[in-house]
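Task 17 of the worksheet. Students: predict the tertiary structure of the chain below and write it out as structure tokens. Keep your answer in the requested format; marks are given for formatting as well as content.
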Amino acid sequence: MNTHTARAILAIETSCDETAAAVVGLDRSVRSSVVASQVDLHRRFGGVVPEIASRAHVETVNAVVAQALEDAGVEPEDLAAVAVTQGPGLIGALLVGMTAAKTYAFAWSKPIVYVDHIEAHIWANFVGGEETPLPAVCLVVSGGHTTLYWMDERQQLTVIGETIDDAVGEAYDKVARLLGLPYPGGPHVDRLAHEARTPVRFPVPLAESPGFDFSLSGLKTAVAYHVREHAERGFEPADVAAGFQQAVVDMLVLKLKRAIRHFQPRSVLAAGGVIANSAIRAAFTNLSAQLGIPLRFPHFSLCTDNAAMVGMRAVDLFLAGQIGELDAPAYSITRTRVSS
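Model answer:
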């Protein structure tokens, strides 16, 4: 056994359309991270096709795992455990990763650790080892999830707000489709918004509603009506993109500010693929300065789905003794619960 790699976890992520594997040390060092994206497979359909995603995971997962182990210089005997995303996500895609991880764990006689995908996004903020003042308010904004958490001093998570319909990333993709932009829509809408001259004014979702929940369905419909009503005489796509994006940003800032003032955290952690959006990052940075509270983002490479964040979460679960059973099921929807 190599002493310098003896304490590490192999992590696998297949919740949607990225096949990913990483090796993370029990000292929380990321020793390798490999991501095989399926964007090109799904682009012509304008979104992720679950059956295609599952098939691509089957074809790719073993090669991705082998590459992660090779990049880290790790052999199976050097591993302390195998970790895998259990949910939420596309059930067929999740089952590919779960089956692979269970097979590796059984064949190598290693314990298995199951990780919640949304929680893993938050743990992407811990890559690099910088201390984070707790308690914290955590916001995950991704293609399938928009969720606010309260993280206490023991890193236990409680859901305090979530979307009641569409997630932010999902709404971006649908608006991009309305504007004739390629998939995935988020980066294209963001870039187009910067070209706007007179942004369309759309209502901020749930602006007058108390609490910390989010909603995107009404905003998405408002954009669709605007595009339809102005289709004949023409409209400026950049103005629509900018108006939509501003309404999203205003909603997120409103809810985040409300949570900060209510819970009085010592820091804010933002995560998820949509956190790479330039307008959202700028608005959150301004809010952090305005309220005088530390704010953390993951590195851009760790915003979208990856296995390094899964491994980071798995390290804490493993050290806390939270070992799973080989017959554990995957789950496709968010589990609103307190997590240790």
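Marker's comment: Confidence is low (pLDDT under 50) at residues 1-5, 336-340. Residues 10 and 23 are 5 Å apart (CA to CA).
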